[in-house]
Design a protein that fits this description.
By secondary structure, this protein is mainly α. It contains two helices and no strands. Helix 1 packs across helix 2.
């Protein structure tokens, strides 16, 4: 039996915008070393929901979407010490 990873279902652009903001806040808390706003499974499901929404609505992708940030990249693309 195979299982499918959970996904947050985002019904409209308002839900998508809230999801992007929630993911951004969780990412910021994680990077600041603070308490996690979401557990890993919830964050992953939210990210999959954002990816699915963006795939179906490419014109609505927000510039601060977590799907557009490569892992480990510093915001703005500026590398420290350069």
């Amino acid at each position: 039996m195979t299982s499918t990873a959970p996904i947050a279902v985002l019904a409209d652009s308002e839900a998508y915008t809230r999801a992007v903001r929630t993911a951004a806040a969780a990412r910021a808390a994680h990077r600041a070393g603070g308490a996690y706003a979401l557990d890993d499974a919830t964050y992953d499901a939210l990210l999959r929901g954002i990816e699915a929404y963006e795939a179906g609505h490419p014109a609505e992708v927000l510039p601060d979407s977590p799907t557009g940030r490569p892992a480990g990249r510093v915001d703005g693309g500026v590398r420290p010490g350069r």
